[in-house]
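ok so dumb question maybe but i'm new to this and my supervisor (M.) told me to 'just get the structure for DnaJ-domain-containing protein' and walked off. so i did the thing. is this what she meant?? sequence i used:
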Amino acid sequence: MRLLHLIAFLAVLVTAVCAWTKEDHEIFDLVSALEAAEGKGTNFYSWLDVSSTATTQEISKAYRRKSLQLHPDKNKGVKHAHERFARLGVVAAILRDPAKRERYDFFYKNGVPVWRGTGYYYSRFRPGLGTVIVFLVLISSGIQYLVQKMNYNRDLKRIEWIIGQARQAAWGTKLTPVQGQRKVKVNLGGPPRLDADGNAVSGRMVDMVVEGDDVYILERDGSMHAVNSETAVAPSIKNTWFLSLVTGLWGKVTRRDGSAIDGTSSADAEDSDEVSGAGSDAPGSGASTPKEGGAGSLKNVRATATMMAGGRRRKAVSKRKLRQQPTQAAEAEGAAAEE
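this is what came out, is it supposed to look like this??
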């Protein structure tokens, strides 16, 4: 019933919005501009100093008198003098036209509408692309939040119904509490239905446990999951699509893989492996090779090498250079002996 009322209200609103013509929008602009310039409550008649029943001749006479007062030549240096004089001419033209005056009198008696149509406001304010995007994001996120809230309320009712069915199966129709645990089967698939052969087929039967006021779903492995209001997912602004997208992108930007956490790049990690492998040639050294320790051991070796380096990247020495170091040392000692 509420949906029908909402549809009817929207239909009336759309009809009212579509009823505003270009001339009506011109009147709306003049009314707003006149009140902003001359004061709240100022209307066409009061500004010309005539009554709402004045004749066309009286309006023309009042216009000539008012135009002499507001003419820019007599108001040199006065701010917005040209705008006021031009506005006076438009107001007088509306009141001297029978059709336009009749339309203005309608708004004069019934009041200018607050909502004047999306096209009216869009043409006046001219929102940019950023404003439109922000508006769409807010509207879509608000609608998604309302859907979350509706689903949450629906889930709460479903949970209350399941709890009631479990207690009724455990305690009886009078719902007299029974001490201790009671294992029951609850039909969560609705009332029995007939299959193609005309046989009655029961709904989905679920094993449940009722212990005091608590109700649990019993899994096949023997584990139990509580059924209460916390089972339902509460609505949250953070779960709307835009904030979820921003959070996901931010997580991807700030997320670090294993090598980044260790503080070394892949190239530095390979060099560190060479340093670690140099000491593993000797038996009983205690160093783990990739074949022995697997990927986990290799990662630990990298982390250890990085930690030993003080958390900073340093260039490792290859095996070939390590083998050359003793030869260079012997050559240095021979040269010193000859001297």
